[in-house]
Amino acid sequence: MSGAGLRARFRGRIGEFLLDAAIDAPASGVTALFGPSGCGKTTVLRCVAGLGRMADGSCALGEEVWQDGARFLPTHRRPIGYVFQEASLFPHLSVRRNLVYGAPVGDLAGVAFGYDEVVDLFGLAPFLERSPRNLSGGERQRVALGRALLSQPRLLLMDEPLSALDAAAKEEILPYLERLHARVSLPVVYVTHDMREVERLADHLVLMDKGRVAAAGPLADLLSDPALPFARAREAAVMLDAVVRGHDPHYELLELDVDGGRFLTPAPAGVVGEHRRLKVTASDVSLACNPPGPSSIVNILRARILHATATGPAEMIVVLGLGEGGEGARLLSRLTRRSWETLGLAEDMPVYAQVKSVALARSRGVKES
Amino acid sequence: MLSGLPPDLGRIILLTLQLATITTLVLLLLATPLAWWLARSPSRWKEVVAAFVSLPIVLPPTVLGFYLLVALGPQGPGGALAGLWGGRTLAFTFEGLVIGSIIYSLPFVVQPVRNAFVAMGDRPLEAAATLRASPWRAFWTVALPMASPGLLTGAILGFAHTIGEFGVVLMIGGNIPGRTRVLSTAIFDYVENSQWREANILAGGMVVFAFAVVLAMIALERRVAGARS
After folding, report:
1. What is the pLDDT of residues B28-86, one digit of tens each?
2. Chain B residues with CB-CB distance to A75 below 8 A
3. Minimum Cα–Cα distance from B142: chain A residue
4. pLDDT, averaged across chain B
5. Do A84 and B127 touch (CB under 8 A)?
6. Subunit contact B130:A80, Cβ cutoff 8 A
7. Distance, in angstroms, between B1 CA and closest chain A CA?
8. B126 touches chain A (CB under 8 A)
9. How many CB pairs under 8 A join A and B?
10. How close does chain A come to B119, measured CA to CA in Å?
């Protein structure tokens, strides 16, 4: 099934600043609209859905034009699924009737998302006949996700679906979002101001600030771009797409391949060929010029310095390309300026990256790419 | 026991209930779209319309009754309307009484229904729209069911006010036995003729009825509040 991507652009005044944002979301994968509160990301999402309208705007899904000039397709004619911050279930309907509210009537054979499958995907079977009033916040949001999918959308829009939940409910629902991510092959636009959600869910990132798009592109590119605030932040990290290669049952270590290198990380066995997402924090990566001697560090990878910038009087952030030629996946390393100078490091130099720890950022995802 | 009751009591009660039922039904049909418009329209004129609708709450019933009498009479639009079926006037008729009651009780139905629509907010309708529901379908399947406590409150208030109204009914109805004599005007009649026992029976009945209405409203509010929490 090949879907179509979203192209949208909106200009207009909201509050005290001017919104001028062009958003592209590829035909599959999660595009995170990320930025501080009040930067206009929710406004953009509402305009895409047709819930908000900016006179100067255009919006199209593939060849299908929803807004352009005087043309404006009302929300109920757009094939979208929308998940609000609060689940916004209909309180007078049971969970089951909420779920099927937007589902097409008649022949359900051949629809992309079947009822039984959605109930199973979000674990809704135990409370189908209950009233939404008697559900927890996390359960309600799962119903809202299922309801959105059952309307057979070709574009899924999510407006900070976790922000109204407490920490425990967030943890409860993130695996469901990851399952969703693994299951669907339609464009998803996900509004959030929480970096953790971006790290776990996003494939593409649109960074917004004061009504404008500050940067946009694949997640890996943006996280390792030293010109952007991500790489310069204290908790700077990269997310790597990894494929399970094997497992060492004796030491309970999982073997994962990334572009340009191999990692070992403590984890139970996984299916070979399965995709996982690894998080490598810049402060966990140190550099050596020569192959290091015996060390407790498990992951030592060949890499090349692509770029280095000072982030303050004492520290530097270094962008590495994995592999001897540096053409593999990007890593970030945080060093002191003193180490940089003592080791005589320079851009384009081959080095050994010693990675103290890697974390599985997305454990259950089974993403086909 | 029964022999002690006023002889025309049955007809009076029946007529009163007929008037209140018809008025309430028409009011629900009329007030719901009006309340919807008042709740959701961005128009600057809506508060002017809302104030106009609310006039019967503050106007002396005799003032309202006077204008209605003029409007329903042979020279007014009511007379023209009556001409359609060969009548001369709507004043002092049951139909006239229905029209008067509708205007008098309108604010008591519009207000709770409008409040219910406002309290619901935009979100349920937006959610419905993102699920392919047309505005028409969203109104019937989401807005109306969610506002049903407000509609029920409006219906009870409209019904009770129609039964309780005296001034307007006397002005435009004329208290004609069997045609426009309802409970409230009948009580007035008995008192005027010093039939204290009959007046007492009707007045006592009205107190019981009013008490039952207030009790029903409280029970309804508690049920709705309980369902929301």
Report:
1. 999 999 999 999 999 999 999 999 999 999 999 889 999 998 888 888 888 888 888 87
2. 126, 129-130
3. A90
4. 89
5. yes
6. yes
7. 48
8. yes
9. 60
10. 14
Query: What would be the CATH architecture of the domain defined by A237-241+273-362?
Result: Beta Barrel (2.40)
Looking at residue A367, its pLDDT comes to 38
Nearest CA in chain B to A49: B130
- The alpha-carbon gap from B120 to the nearest alpha carbon of chain A, in Å, equals 11
Q: Cβ separation of B127 and A51 shorter than 8 Å? A: no
User: How does DSSP classify residue A284?
Assistant: G
* Per-residue pLDDT reduced to its tens digit, A153-205: 999 999 999 998 988 888 888 888 988 888 888 999 999 999 999 999 999 99
Distance from CA of B140 to the nearest CA of A (A): 12
Q: Which of A49, A76, A89 minimises the CB distance to B132?
A: A76
User: For residue B89, what are the contacts with CB-CB under 8 A and spacing of at least 6?
Assistant: B72, B73, B74, B78, B79, B82, B96
Distance CA A257, CA A263 (A): 6
Put the strands of the sheet holding A71-72 in their side by side order.
A71-72, A64-68, A56-61, A6-14, A17-25, A212-218, A204-209, A29-34, A187-192, A155-159, A80-83
The pTM for the full model equals 0.87
Q: Which residues of A touch B (CB under 8 A)?
A: 49-51, 74-77, 80-82, 84, 86, 88-92, 101-102, 133, 147-148, 151
Q: Parse chain B into domains and list their residue ranges.
A: 2-221
* CATH architecture of the region B2-221: Orthogonal Bundle (1.10)
Q: Tell me what pLDDT residue A368 has.
A: 36
Residues from chain B contacting residue A77 (CB–CB below 8 Å): 132
Least confident of A27-31, A297-301, B214-218: B214-218
Q: Which residues partner with A159 through β-bridges?
A: A191
Options 3.40.718.10, 3.40.50.300, 3.40.630.30, 3.40.50.2300; CATH for A6-218 is: 3.40.50.300
How many other C-beta atoms can be found within 10 angstroms of the C-beta atom of residue B11? 15
Query: Which segments of chain A belong to CATH 2.40.50.100?
Result: 237-241+273-362
pLDDT tens figures, A34-80: 999 888 999 999 999 999 999 899 999 999 999 998 999 999 999 99
pLDDT score for B179: 84
- Asked if B121 is an interface residue toward chain A (Cβ–Cβ < 8 A), one would say no
pLDDT at A3: 66
Q: Where in chain A is the domain with CATH 3.40.50.300?
A: 6-218
Residue A369, pLDDT > 80, answer no
φ/ψ (deg, to 5) at A207: -95, 120
Q: Among all residues of chain B, which has the CA nearest to that of A100?
A: B131
Distance of alpha carbon A170 from the chain centroid? 15
Q: What is the pLDDT of residues A323-367, one digit of tens each?
A: 988 999 999 999 999 999 999 999 999 999 999 988 888 654 433
